[in-house]
Automatic annotation (TrEMBL):
Organism from which the protein derives: Halobellus clavatus
Record-annotated membrane-spanning stretches: none
Molecular function per GO: iron-sulfur cluster binding; metal ion binding
The entry's keywords: Electron transport, Iron, Iron-sulfur, Metal-binding, Transport
Name of the protein in its database record: Ferredoxin
PANTHER family assigned: FERREDOXIN (PTHR36923:SF3)
The organism's place on the tree of life at top rank: Archaea
Keyword DNA repair: no
Tagged with keyword Iron: yes
Amino acid sequence: MKIRYDRETCIGMFQCVEEWDAFEKNLDEGKADLAESTEVEDGVFELEVPDGAELDAEFAARACPVDAIELYDGDEQVV
C-alpha cells in the first residue's frame, strides 16, 4: 500500500496529523510534512505504508478537507 501526498494542495488544517503520526506539522510553512517520504514530482511525495499502519493512513487520507492525500493498493486508488 502506498500513500501519495500533494503538499502544494495542502491548506494546513493538520487533520492528517491527528490521524497518523507519519504526518507532522510544519508551522513555519503552514503545511503538513510526510515523514520519510520521497518527492516523486514537484511538491508530490510518496511513502510505502508500513505494515499495521494501513488503517491510520486511510483515516489520514479521508480526513484531508482538500483531498491532498491519496491511498493506493497496488495500482488501485482506495482513497
